[in-house]
Amino acid sequence: MIKVNCFAHLKELAGGNMIQIDRKEMSVKELLEEVQRQYHIQSDSVLVAINEEYALPDDQVTEHDTVALIPPVSGG
Amino acid sequence: MFEVTSEPLSIEAVSQKVIRPEAGAVVTFTGTVREFTKGKRTLYLTYEAYASMAEKQLKRIGDEITTRWPDAVTAISHRTGKLEISDIAVVIAVSTPHRKDAYEANEYAIERIKQIVPIWKKEKWEDGEEWIGDQLESNAGVPEKEEIR
Fold first, then answer.
1. Looking at CB atoms within 10 Å, which of A45, A63, A67, B12 has the fewest?
2. Interface contact B113-A75, CB threshold 8 A
């Protein structure tokens, strides 16, 4: 089970701080497709962080990683 | 030197972190909550952060500044939670031997914060609320591949 932390408007779309995907390992690209399919979250501009670092589409994410969806940021 | 906190920010405290004998210039930038944006009135803002990652990314900005301006020392504090009009959301202090580098490095820091630091703000208006940074806003920060690695 891959647990994915959600922030900002994604948290509201997902209905909570965290969503779960029933896989042990997948690519970032697959993860975003799954998120879009299950939660109807438009993931075009959403990045994925693995263990608090930005990940690229081909990176692998496993159930042991800390995973987060990062919508466009707006700090400052 | 790099923190995300729900406590009110002190300009003095952040700039004190970078003051040192080698520095002849300290530039501080203070980002405050603006009441009117394009004629629309903001009542208050709520900032949310992925705090542990945000602090790492702030430190990374400090490292980038040291690469570009080797004599610079940077400290950044960003606040989260509910902020009223004119409250301070971010303080960036950069010290360098000479002022030009400090000005440049400080501007670089705020531009990078808006690109790569996982902090979001929700605007509460008189007639609604919205997370800033979604597709409806042109200033959304989506880091490019070369910006995140």
1. B12
2. yes
